[in-house]
Amino acid sequence: MSEQESAALVSHEMAYAATREALIAAVDDAVLFPAVTAHGSKQTNRFSIKSAATGSFAGLKVGSFWADNDALGLPRHNSLILLFDQQVGRIDWVIEAGLVNAYRTAAADAVAADMLARPDASTLAIFGAGNQAFYEVMALRRVRPITEVLVVARDADKGAAFVARLQEQGVAAARASAEEACRRADMVVTATPARAPLFDASWIGPGTHVASMGSDAAGKQELPPALFEQASLYCDLPAQSVIMGDFQHFAGDRSAIVAIGDVLQGRDPGRTSADQITIFDSSGIALQDLCIARHLIAMKP
User: Is there a single domain that holds both residue 150 and residue 89?
Assistant: First the structure.
């Protein structure tokens, strides 16, 4: 399936459904294998391989980041999903999924927010002004009554362009400093390649839901570790989050980290009070890619 075909079929609704299935499968019968991270001939060009298997399907996703593609007018991120024929072991489907990956990543944010954010959460702070940040906002608008988006961006021009892009979609958006955005927000989402905390833990008020969407490799970091001591901790896959997610920087009792799939299955209560601070650490799991691939195949004309 070509990039053009998959891009025409994907939607936030479909990505949400597929990702919800994936996060539940992650705590049920699935096996998720350790992620492989590597680089191209230039070390700034990176790729990762994530794979998984269930009782009925198995496969892998290759995700790449080529740093200089902007200058060529090409996306820096790309994605390829491979599904195996379970009977003979040959590749059954090859799906180009660059845009699909943006939807799939944002869908995990939305599924977690649906479980953990306060029902009345209406002010969103978004760190980052890249392509992924846009899809995070669009996905979250489907699950919470967002009336204001505060954009935190290091590059003033990119921040202004991102605000304009959101406004074109009917979103009330404005630039803000990191401290202002955090103090005013009901939800804080980070979608950056940062390697140091983006804000101070003291800026996060009671009842806030925080999601780290950009920490997906060893050494990356978006959240202040001091915040972990004040919050309830959730992620897509605990074993992976402590290696390549933001929780690699958590020095406390790692048994306190809960898979969001357990909340979806009713095994963990999730948010239990209006003042509770919740954190979702998403480093991305292969099941998201495999489940969304199966949805795409089912929709293919």
Answer: no
